[in-house]
TrEMBL record, chains A, B:
Residue ranges constituting the Bacterial bifunctional deaminase-reductase C-terminal domain according to the UniProt record: 4-166
Pfam families, A to Z: RibD_C (PF01872)
Gene3D superfamilies, sorted: Dihydrofolate Reductase, subunit A
Record's protein name: Dihydrofolate reductase-like
GO MF term list: 5-amino-6-(5-phosphoribosylamino)uracil reductase activity
GO biological process: riboflavin biosynthetic process
Annotated organism of origin: Penaeus vannamei
Length: 180, 180
């Protein structure tokens, strides 16, 4: 049972720019059209958990739905899944620990936790086991940060780096709950 | 002529914790007493440039003065170098571009730019050419950030990673002024 963050940030730790836009993510030249390991990561996971805002953002992208695995959307206000997503998206709500336990009970053990607010909420409850962070080496100078306030520090451990198209770096960290 | 940042940050980008302390930097086990490349980096540079606050902090550490190269302290208020530092520390002030040009004229071409405020001021004027950032994989959840506001994004490029004591990662980035 592992909850994994897989996300790209700017060099200064933002997941969206000052205008809540993501264009800067796609500015890196990618002549071979690599997915930078995304589909391999998708093979690994059993399901995604994201917030309502992230769902709305992805649903609004001008491209096909990118997730071949079930997407559980955390929302206290949505009561029905938007048309067209009935076989892709499922609503969940309530305490995160309970949501995760219920998904684990159903056999969804490797969970991809997505979206800034959701990641921050999971971290607040120490529910993140692994983080795969691709750094786009742009200093944005402002935007929506990946990380937020925590009452106490959380220790992770670096387990690997991969350079992508000679520009970006993907670093992988795992949670160390008993110190390093 | 290169201005280089060489610094450690938490996984969430802080250079000091919520109490302006650095203890968390030294929590990583280091059984062989490695300096993680610091003295090799010191060999490479010609001089350091830091702010008054960083100078005070380092001067207050309970250890020998760690810099074998001249340290130029940016200060508009200090008029004399504190006793004991006369052969180590030199005061500079004024416009950063001018300060750098004057140091370059004197043969100080590889400059180590240190301290949060100074790094942010150098970045605001696009005066940083290289950044060597060691990530201590602790999420602090608050503190003094390395990066600050910028009027426009700055693109860097990842050039290398090094894992340290199986816990941390040192990533190196160089400035790309004409795009990637």
């Amino acid at each position: 049972m592992v909850n994994i963050v897989y996300i790209a940030t700017s060099l200064d730790g933002f997941i969206a720019d000052k205008n809540n836009e993501l264009d800067w993510l796609h500015e890196v030249p990618n002549p071979d059209g690599s997915d930078f390991g995304f589909s391999a990561f998708m093979q690994r996971i059993d399901a995604l958990v994201m917030g309502r805002k992230t769902f709305d953002k992805v649903a609004g992208f001008d491209c096909a739905w990118p997730y071949p695995k079930p997407v559980f959307v955390l929302s206290n206000s949505m009561t029905t899944v938007p048309q067209g997503y009935e076989d892709k998206v499922f609503l969940v709500h309530g305490e995160l620990k309970k949501v995760v336990a219920e998904l684990n009970d159903k056999g969804y053990n490797e969970l991809y936790i997505d979206g800034g607010v959701t990641v921050q909420n999971f971290l607040k409850e120490d529910l993140i086991d692994e983080m795969i962070i691709t750094t786009i080496p742009t200093i944005l100078g402002g935007g929506i940060p990946l990380f937020g306030e925590l009452n106490q520090p959380l220790k992770f451990k670096h387990v690997g780096s991969e350079r992508l198209v000679d520009v970006m770096v993907k670093n992988r960290y795992v949670r160390c709950r008993n110190g390093w």
